[in-house]
Fold:
Amino acid sequence: MAIFTQLEEFGHEEVLFCQNKDVGLRAIIAIHDTTLGPALGGTRMWPYETEEEALADALRLSRAMTYKAAAAGLNMGGGKAVIIGDPKKDKSEALFRAFGRFIESLKGRFITGEDVGVDVNDVEYMYMETRYVCGLSPAHGGGGDPAPVTALGVVQGMKACVQEQFNATSLEGFTVAVQGLGSVGSHLVELLVNERAQVIGTDIDEEKVRRVVDRFGIRTVPPDEIYRVDADIFAPCALGAVINDETIPQFKFKIIAGSANNQLAEDRHGEELHRRGILYAPDYVINAGGLINIYVELEGYDRERALRMTRSIYYNLRKVFEIARQENIPTAQAADKLVEQRIAMVRKLKDMYTGQGVHRMRWETR
Amino acid sequence: MAIFTQLEEFGHEEVLFCQNKDVGLRAIIAIHDTTLGPALGGTRMWPYETEEEALADALRLSRAMTYKAAAAGLNMGGGKAVIIGDPKKDKSEALFRAFGRFIESLKGRFITGEDVGVDVNDVEYMYMETRYVCGLSPAHGGGGDPAPVTALGVVQGMKACVQEQFNATSLEGFTVAVQGLGSVGSHLVELLVNERAQVIGTDIDEEKVRRVVDRFGIRTVPPDEIYRVDADIFAPCALGAVINDETIPQFKFKIIAGSANNQLAEDRHGEELHRRGILYAPDYVINAGGLINIYVELEGYDRERALRMTRSIYYNLRKVFEIARQENIPTAQAADKLVEQRIAMVRKLKDMYTGQGVHRMRWETR
Structure:
């Protein structure tokens, strides 16, 4: 079993196994760290073969949420829920409502929303039982499509990159290779064109390629070729693990800055970029726009505020690059360091505060 | 791992793994069923060899709490917490306060108190972080010693037994064999003497025997002989599993009614008593006085109310005996049936209510 060993290794506070036999619900809620605030993270539904797999996913993804929220400067911790089941066969109103009651029972310590296998309709069922969900349809106070916000965050991050790497103050004249022309990628292309950058795009879906070319007249290449095009910046906006042993030797890029999750196949690939002098914008720092959008939704959605907060990704990356420069470490390590420092600082403050607070309470109420 | 399989088998709603590396806390909180109300159950500290053992204990004991609370007619569900550690070496204020914060985070869904390895001082540390603990010292609003209340409950249960078995309305003239002269046993002897019953006592601790003999002048026997004395009623108030293949053939008793937990070694021993026409007062029904005492503490302690509620154990057992008589089943089975009927009935009512309530809320707030 060794659950506690895993919790200690990952640094989790708690993990909850929820069951409702009547509706066939088996779910795991992992709360990684609530030092900065309530744990925020989506709910994933997946036909995991074993409980171990489901637990491993919940632990891994919830820790990533802690880092992402902390790096974005949000007062939020990290969590994640997984429902064991096949999204194509096992969904029902009863199941999501039962799950919603578990979320409600946590009284806001965990706030969730859509993720792989869980869509806005499922979240609406959860919302029947709990307020602690987000990513609702705009009609119900939700923030709507997060893609434009994520894309804006990537552009802000790119600006921090060109500042660091070329001492440049705008993206004008730089060439950007955008991998993936889906919702985030196509918004990114639009923003880059407005910034007067050159764009080279690619996507495995030819229909998406055609649509972007029709609108913005950018140059495109077949999917395999994107890694070796002559561009200053590579923006992975589709798959994970695209920075790996096969792709790195092809890179002529000086900067990697995109919205995809888990861009580095392994940690050592971040070290390799560092050795080659390629500036890497750590994925969870630069792609936080979507999360910021959700954070704003929790406070009552305001598009302007979401966009304003997303601009801070520029400053967050500047801090990461400063640590990396001063300590001569890869940027991915510097980002982790920034997060861990922030959490440790807040934990220290809270410990001091809580100690006093509790004592005061004890003496006053007796 | 198979945690969900176990949860389904036992019928649990959820199980929570809590960890705080800084203070060395590893705890499991099992919430079995909250249909009737918040889950109530003690916190045990024990040097479990494996996580599996700790989980098994938490699951087993929390389910037993559901049955006990439901049989006592309380609006409480069943839960239990276990802390993995050696009570002699691993205790600290920091550990119990960290655990208290987990209890607090459940916001009253689980209410806990002392159990094996956890004493009133440890509960006081937990209380620094959460109100959701009970069994505090009387100075802090606690109910104090539950033993006299438990003993009263056993006497009420015995009255239901003599009513059922002999159509008698008092214990006067009946002979009762009391096994264990500790806190509950000695209070029981006092109450039985007041009821003009004959008492035969035993204990492995000679000092305890001497003290009870000095005060009440009862007859005593060596520990081994208690199973074969000539008495109408056997009151096990010490060890569990004292109704087993070795002891049953020795019984001349017509009634078994005592405060010990888990009196039947196995379910089949309850069936054997049934075959032999020995009336068994199911342990968790007759020994609920201590739990009732804690329940009253949660509402603001009132000794009179605790004693009054404990008298209802008479009626609870009458209901159990009625089911057993009508269906010709062992009383232990009848008690489980009573509990399951009560929970199913309340669940049905709640489902109806919740369904409507949620719909109303949705339409009014949008």
